[in-house]
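Private note to self, pasted from the team thread so I don't lose it. Backbone tokens:
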């Protein structure tokens, strides 16, 4: 049996790989984590982030909703990434509703992620509504 610490390390390496543009390698790492712990949301969050980094936002949203949320319906981190995927899809009002629910979560990392994404949504909305310079 693989220890939880080792799986977390593999997942972290996968997150670094996807953010560095190594999608195939990240996917392999997340598959390994999924095989070792099929009841964990971690590989599904990784797969979703990998898809977002490849501009495949709808697929990321489907992974989060159909796989990760099914495993842990109340997981604030999963919901924060759902909010991110919705934002990337331009579904800003849905994203805002989702993220607002998480900002008061006991999960400090998820609440912080949600707050940061809400700030980004607001900044984007402000840019769209402000008149351009002529």
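Design output:
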């Amino acid at each position: 049996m693989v220890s939880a610490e080792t799986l977390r390390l593999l997942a972290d390496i996968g997150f670094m790989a996807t953010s560095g543009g190594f999608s195939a390698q990240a996917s392999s790492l997340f598959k390994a984590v999924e095989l070792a712990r099929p009841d964990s949301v971690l590989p599904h969050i990784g797969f979703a982030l990998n898809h977002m980094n490849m501009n495949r936002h709808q697929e990321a949203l489907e992974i989060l909703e159909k796989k990760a949320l099914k495993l842990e319906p109340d997981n604030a981190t999963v919901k924060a990434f759902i909010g991110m995927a919705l934002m990337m899809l331009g579904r800003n009002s849905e994203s805002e509703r989702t993220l607002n629910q998480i900002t008061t979560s006991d999960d400090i990392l998820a609440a912080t992620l949600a707050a940061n994404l809400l700030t980004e949504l607001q900044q984007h909305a402000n840019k769209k509504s402000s008149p351009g310079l002529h």
